[in-house]
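Example record

One chain of 642 residues, shown exactly as stored in the release files.
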Amino acid sequence: MSRDDPQGAVKAPATAHDADAPFLELLARGAAAEAYDRPVLLARAEGGPDERIAALEHARLLALRVRSELEGRRRREAELSALFETAHDLAGLRDVDAVLRAIVQRARSLLGTDVAYLSLNDPARGDTYMRVTEGSVAARFQQLRLGMGEGLGGLVAQTARPYVTDDYFRDDRFRHTAAIDGGVRDEGLVAILGVPLTLGPNVIGVLFAADRRARVFEREQIALLGSFAALAAAAIDTANLLTETRSALAGLERANEIIRDRSSVIERASDVHDRLAELVLRGGGVHDVAAAVSHVLDGVVEFTETAPADALEASRAEGHAVRHREDWVAAVAAGGELLGALVLRGHPGLDPVDQLTLERAAMVTSLLLLARRSAAEAEQRVRGELLDDLLDARDRDPRLLRERAARLRADLDATHVVLAARLDAVAPDADHEAAARRRLWAAASHLAATRHGLAAARDGGTVLLLPLEPGDSATDLARRTALHLGAAVHETVTVGASAPVCDLAAEPDTVVAGYEESRRCLDALRLLGRRGDGAAAEDFGFLGLLLAGERDVTGFVDRTIGKVVRYDERRGTDLLRTLDAYFASGMSPARTKDELHVHVNTVAQRLERVGRLLGEDWQSPARALEIQLALRLHRLASPARH
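Predicted structure tokens for this chain:
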């Protein structure tokens, strides 16, 4: 059946729907990945047509991608929920053993390991002992006491860094002992991951996750276990602080007064932790956290990315808020990455529990930032995938494209401009170049999200699809985009723009053609030395005819001599004929008057009128060339007048 066959046009959506139906049912009931092969295998066994089998295979791939994305999101939600629950447990800490048990149980559940356990250093005896185990079945393993520096945990404690082994007994990078190996053998462990529990610069223990089979732990799992370790260390730190407080109160004559004071402060700290937990659960932001802590501490708390470098580094290294002149600075960090700081302004005297409150607020702020980043990165990927489909897969169903765009708050039926953006600076090496491109893509994705458009990394740069507002032009949009991206990445960015494009869902070829046109404009800007600028084909004069995807002859003529054409039409004058004769006579008024059979003063008056219409520079070489080309194109387009 031909493409123009109306019956074929009616049947195509039904075929796509029939192919999607079994996989939507599988997605709805959360079927295993193997189940998605059955509809294709069944169609082949029944001898179905090739078109249906191809449609089923395509739908299967899409469904598996959706299933994988849903599983990833559920996993991330479960991880964040567990971290928030643990932070809430820590806020109302009464029994440190209960909090540590909850941390170990959640770590084991989320990482899907056979065993999870936590060991703590015993400074008095100079060794390490098992504090909490989950999933362990061997009594000797649960009662292990290890000498300092022995086994995998000893290596973690010495380096203060995570360590993982795929096969414990074949790994000779740490010191094996009979006692440790015997306990590990009794438990049947093979793959072990250990992360340090740190208080400031000191390692106080190790949090482990282990399997009874060979396994490779992924970077995200290592980071997740590290987050649980940070919360466990915080629980121990809080418990130690409470213990020290109680010991000090017992030895002082002013015990009752101190207890009342401490009780008030601790209740205040518990109140702020409850507020922070509530903020997190209802989707509050980092500035909401700062406002809540400001109220509790009776001061001004701000989140900033530009805190004093020495104070920021000291806070991150020590794991505590530090005083800087009249302020207190608490680093906001996650997995070794510094995200900013909470700064308490003009409050030099700070109670230890209030200091702890500021530190806990910094921890909650880091969790919020990581959650926001994860959500933003997921949205950026989805926007990039949709734009990639518009550029690559021209046989997409327009209805599905519109639905995907609507979920991203984009309207494919609106008028858009395709923009190609590229960095101009030459990177010193491949790593710097890759980092610069990632920054450009991140900035472009953020711009696309705020403008209800799309963005994707492509051909060593970034491509954007942005809606064109009424009264705006492709040129203005390109220049604003170049300035915005350049400011965001702190480098010059050049942007080429296509002419406005419409009907993107129904006519995906327009996106492809628009991207090619924007790339040609980008290359022209770079060749002309206009780096850091933005432009569309219409900005290049007659060169724009070569750059444009479709030759806009009418637009070029109108931009170049349209005012003269309309003047002649309104007043019945002969300015166009005078211009033709003037250029044909070598721009000599004397020869022009002979050609037109008029007085030389008449020629001068007409040329003066042309100058007022086209601008004083109309006789410059570049403008004169464009005007002559426009005159010739106008004459070819209107032969009846000549």
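Notes: Confidence is low (pLDDT under 50) at residues 1-14, 544-549.
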